[in-house]
Amino acid sequence: xxxxxxxxxxxxxxxxxxxxxxxxxxxxxxxxxxxxxxxxxxxxxxxxxxxxxxxxxxxxxxxxxxxxxxxxxxxxxxxxxxxxxxxxxxxxxxxxxxxxxxxxxxxxxxxxxxxxxxxxxxxxxxxxxxxxxxxxxxxxxxxxxxxxxxxxxxxxxxxxxxxxxxxxxxxxxxxxxxxxxxxxxxxxxxxxxxxxxxxxxxxxxxxxxxxxxxxxxxxxxxxxxxxxxxxxxxxxxxxxxxxxxxxxxxxxxxxxxxxxxxxxxxxxxxxxxxxxxxxxxxxxxxxxxxxxxxxxxxxxxxxxxxxxxxxxxxxxxxxxxxxxxxxxxxxxxxxxxxxxxxxxxxxxxxxxxxxxxxxxxxxxxxxxxxxxxxx
Length: 375
Ligand SMILES: *[C@@H]1O[C@H](CO)[C@@H](O)[C@H](O)[C@H]1NC(C)=O
Ligand SMILES: *[C@@H]1O[C@H](CO)[C@@H](O)[C@H](O)[C@H]1NC(C)=O
Fold this sequence. Notes:
single chain; alpha/beta; Rossmann fold; 2 domains; two-stranded antiparallel ribbon; 10 helices; globular; disordered N terminus; disordered C terminus; binds 2-acetamido-2-deoxy-beta-D-glucopyranose
């Protein structure tokens, strides 16, 4: 009698809904809940959109100015839109506690500011960059192996800092409860400049965790090879590492001219999302990552494609549901594949075909060649 009462009581303790208990029989299905942010509106043009220009990234169409929960929460219309949105998300999560199969999180994903590799791609042009220069550590003047931010990149991160400062203080945007970053220095620096100097409450400190799988597409470019754990720790001593983070970069295969396929990237983006959703019970989460990786996460979250320029930010309301594992897909895909490269600056490169090297000594087969876009 007593013990069944106890377990009934335990079942009501909110922390007992932890998805930490996701079993190997469960799969997590993600839906991006649309209609809240301009970035989930098909009419928003990613190439010209700037998150700062809008007072809110929240859609202000008449129908969405109010939430079903407003009547009780804000009868006198005193709350900000972020407060009412946050309250609405809380109400969704309260509802979920009943069946424990569903949860919602608000992810703010920011792309790093401009790095030296971005500046070099502009300087050399994309064909020469992809086929030759990106495979080097730098050009003697600039270094782009695990590139750091240019002055412009730091300015972009400072802009994000001012944005969050005003949103936290004036618009009552909820403080983030968890911060994650890619292990690449340009993201660590961006997250640091964006958040480290904010006047955050003690209950919500900036204590970022570096996660391996938030890194950029693992191409043969040296900007996609990370530094060792020791070097990263020396660079940013106040950043934590996820459990099991290896000393050396075990994933980069640039010295074998092999890069990650996009199928592999979407699969590992799902893996890192599953990791966050099953181990982190927080709702408001900041992730600092890369254009290719955020694009891949958006695919894993079933969000519309939305390409981010350097320093841009995208918020997503994510619904996650525990579902039965479907039968393993029968289609297999290559995880890594040979990427085109030349031994000297190329003549040009042709979309879908690859590099046209100045000398005949190419190290790739044209059929397999794929061009990488902007990082
Ligand atoms: C190296 O690349 C940078 C762009 O990242 C450029 O500004 C600089 O002029 C280049 N140096 C040389 C020697 O070409
Ligand atoms: C992080 O920010 C702090 C405070 O501005 C600064 O002292 C530190 O050098 C920064 N570290 C990195 C890696 O940018």
